[in-house]
Amino acid sequence: MDKFERPRLSALGALKRRAEEAVTDKPSFVYVTYIASTPEKVWEALTDADLTAAYWGHRNESDWRPGSRWAHVRTDGSGVEDVVGRVVESKPPTRLVATWAAPAEEDREDRHSRVTFEIQPYEDIVRLTVVHEDLNDEGERSQVGAGWPAVLSNLKSLLETGRTLPQEPWLVPSP
């Protein structure tokens, strides 16, 4: 083996090992968007119940401290919670991690998925990365794969223009 090939092959081997360690038997979804905003404003949009109601159609209610419960509550006044979970990690304004479950499965941790929001500033923009992992099956992955782009497009529009999209993007029919 050529002495110049050793470092490259060693790096490739290390990368392969890390990738294999990261593999789980549960599906995940990753979405990245770029927003003309600040980390503080993106954080507020993710954690302020009134702002989430504006672009998501649900109020995300919590004190956002690690260990606290959070709930995705309908805005129709019914008080119905469609998603619940626990705050795993909260580092304003750059990182938020929470579990995600149907209310009926709140006590079944084996049915919880996990959502990580990474907020990374770069000059006058923010890169928002959402990783939704430990999904229960491909059907759930398909649902979040349709939901996250719609919700995050609405969030981006709100932060950049002061208005949400003229129609609820999650209602657009799939081809």
UniProtKB/TrEMBL annotation:
InterPro entries: ASHA1/2-like_C, START-like_dom_sf
CDD domains (alphabetical): SRPBCC_CalC_Aha1-like_GntR-HTH
Domain Activator of Hsp90 ATPase homologue 1/2-like C-terminal per the UniProt entry, residue ranges: 38-160
Pfam families, alphabetized: AHSA1
Gene3D superfamilies on file: 3.30.530.20
Family designation: Belongs to the AHA1 family.
Name of the featured protein: Activator of Hsp90 ATPase homologue 1/2-like C-terminal domain-containing protein
